Structure formats: structure tokens, C-alpha cells
Amino acid sequence: xxxxxxxxxxxxxxxxxxxxxxxxxxxxxxxxxxxxxxxxxxxxxxxxxxxxxxxxxxxxxxxxxxxxxxxxxxxxxxxxxxxxxxxxxxxxxxxxxxxxxxxxxxxxxxxxxxxxxxxxxxxxxxxxxxxxxxxxxxxxxxxxxxxxxxxxxxxxxxxxxxxxxxxxxxxx
Length: 172
Fold this sequence. Notes:
Blueprint: E1 7-13, H1 16-28, E2 33-36, E3 53-58, H2 62-79, E4 91-97, H3 103-125, H4 133-151, E5 157-162, E6 168-171
Antiparallel strand pairs: 1-3, 2-3, 4-5, 5-6
Helix pairs in contact: 3-4
């Protein structure tokens, strides 16, 4: 960076990983940037509050840098969990949870599977129903599909707790 040109603070990051990601994206776009306060002692409170790592850019590149920063922030917000109650990203993962199937869903699912199998076999066993074989086949496929969907367990969901308001929530 040229020492004669004025630099302006683009953002402050909580850690060097976020700051390095921003600097890398800016460099890919041809925007020169620098980090300020990167070498501060990570022991918070030892020498006063840590203000964070500042990313600085030239004044002439500020608008382009802001648009790149906005893209990075939006992408990160889509990936990171946030509290649906208060909007905070200060959440902690509690682990993965596999939703339990209710016994009624299993009973109804098994019933639909049995109906589907009966509808496949019935036209071949009862001569008077041979003309309705196609109808029974359609009914059997539909009831087999419904039965399988009811019996197959759902995929795991991640369970989180917000440190700000205490709300527990799931994210798939």
C-alpha cells in the first residue's frame, strides 16, 4: 500500500480467520488492503479490551470493497446459525437430534404398506377383480409410497441454544 494515499477502515473482525477471508477476497478483486491490530495479544483483558482486527483499504477502493464485504457477510449469514427469536449469532451447538417417529405414524405407515401389498396380490387371487388390475396397481403404488414416507425417519437436525435470550432451536 502506498504511504501517501489515505486508508480507511472497512470493518473490524473478531478473529484473524474472518479478517484473512476478507483480505483474500479483496485481493482477488484487485483491491489492496491491510490488517491493523492483527498482532494484539489474544488474552482479552490483559492489556485492556481488544478492539478486534481492522481491515483497511484505500479511500478510492472503499465502495468496491464495501460491496465485496456485503457479499461475504450475506454468504456467511446464510451458513451460520442465528436465533429465530432475537436474531443473535451468539449461539452454541448442543448436538444433533434425530426426530422421533410417533407410534401412530408408524402404525399408519405399516397399514398403508400392507394395503399396497394386498392391492398388488388381490387381483391375481380373485378372478372377478382381474379387470381392475390397473386400478389396483395404481392404488397399491400410492399406498406403498405413503406408507414408506410415514415409516422412514427424518434426517438429523442440529440443535442450538442462543446465548443472548436462551431460546433453543433447530437448524437442518
